[in-house]
Amino acid sequence: MISILFLIAVAASIITAIMGLSFLISCIWEKETRAALYAGLQFLLMLGLVFLLFYLEATAFFETATGRAGLILGLVLTGGTFALLTLRIGSNPQALQGTRGLMVGNVKRYDERDIVFARNRTLSPGLEQYQAYYELHPEHEQYDAARRKRGGPLGKPGSIDKPQDRPNVAATLASLSIPLHLSTPEKFNPSQHPEFSQQRVELSPASASARIKGYTLSIGAKLVGITEINPLWIYANRGEIFNENWDDWGREIELTHKYAVVFATEMGFELVGTAPHSSTTIASMANYASGAFIATQLAAFIANLGYSATANHLRHYDAALVPLAVDAGLGETGRLGYLMTKDFGPRVRLGAVTTDLALIPDNPVDIGVEDFCKICKKCAHCCPSNSIPLDDQEAVNGTRRWKLNAETCFDYWGKVGTDCNICMRVCPWSHANTSPHKLIRTLITRNRYSRYLFNSMDDIFYGRKPKPKPAPEWARFDE
Length: 479
Ligand code: SF4
Ligand code: SF4
Description:
Largest sheet: 4 strands, antiparallel
Shape: globular
Number of domains: 2
Strand content: 5-15%
Structural class: alpha+beta
Number of strands: 8
Bound molecules: iron/sulfur cluster
Distance between the termini: 65 Å
Order of helices and strands: HHHHHHHHHEEHHEHEEEHHEEHHHH
Helix content: 40-55%
Strand order of the largest sheet: 1-2-6-3
């Protein structure tokens, strides 16, 4: 009996040591020096435990009453801890309702003209739209004027990497040009290819959904989901103008499409790890370019099947994509205001296609984000402009959530000359998608005690305020 218990104890210690070793390898691969030191220490401790067990067995310690009791107690504690960290504890049934589970009052559709990007990019003094907007919203005028004077992100005066940032700004602008190329109506709202002579391809919703999802993943998306569109997430009025189509500015957005296919692309952890330096913005814009590329092709695919489809990407949005992504089961909204996915945390960018093609919607998910964010608060502590709330969620426009201060966040972008991304970099869900991190994310998705444990471990291994990592050689900003 004791020898079986001894073998179980040895097997458990060896498994834990192997997990420690794989975490060490992952940390070295991720170039996380501090985490690698702690992971190395953890591995040595587990290895030491294996040797200690063999030593005690060799000295017949487990044949004594104390040895037997110690062995049994150790196994009971290990088994108990394992169960405590792996059982499904701390579910959030409201998350399974998607954005409907967050509603606490009347929700008013957002006006795209009010969004900080639309005000900053689209309106300039002298335009009649400028006059019209600030007559309605005098509260923004002085603030916006001062911000325009200071300059926005993308290498404007004040960039933290100046003057060495030029190659990175060049790369960023190269990617940024792609969504603009794809922002004309015939691109985001494509017609059917003449090959089909205006005939529809009839597909069952199940078959159409499988084809649409498979195609989306095959052309570069990492995650894809489908939702029936809640009209509340469609912008009320057009606010962003890119092709001088000023007649569109302020026009009410009417969308007859019933479904949205929402997808996410992964931002490389290496570049995100350098935030807030100019190299991180390369990742953001490259993902917006991929998003535009995927959304436009997907819209054309659906149009060729004979259905109406509209691409939503950086240079053409009809809808707010984070709530659509939540409803499509891609993840939950985190404290930092971005979508948090199970596989990549907030290290994603979103795109979507709305359509009248009948599809089968996915279900929203409960991956434990709300609970984890209540404990963690790391993004809020690290945000240099204090734009992320430290308090609990609040009711904002009829939904319960953490409200990012987009004004002060955008101000900081202008100050550093990049899109910052510090909150994304420090988030414990943003680590590279290696096997140890996958395992940890699976545990925190399932279990409240794991959320506490791995939140503390993240602080120990990576620091409460982790520093940016050096950029890869090709994206350096310091030479
Ligand atoms: S991007 Fe930067 S400034 Fe904006 S919320 Fe995140 S950490 Fe704060
Ligand atoms: S850093 Fe922490 S609090 Fe912020 S979004 Fe990530 S998990 Fe949530």
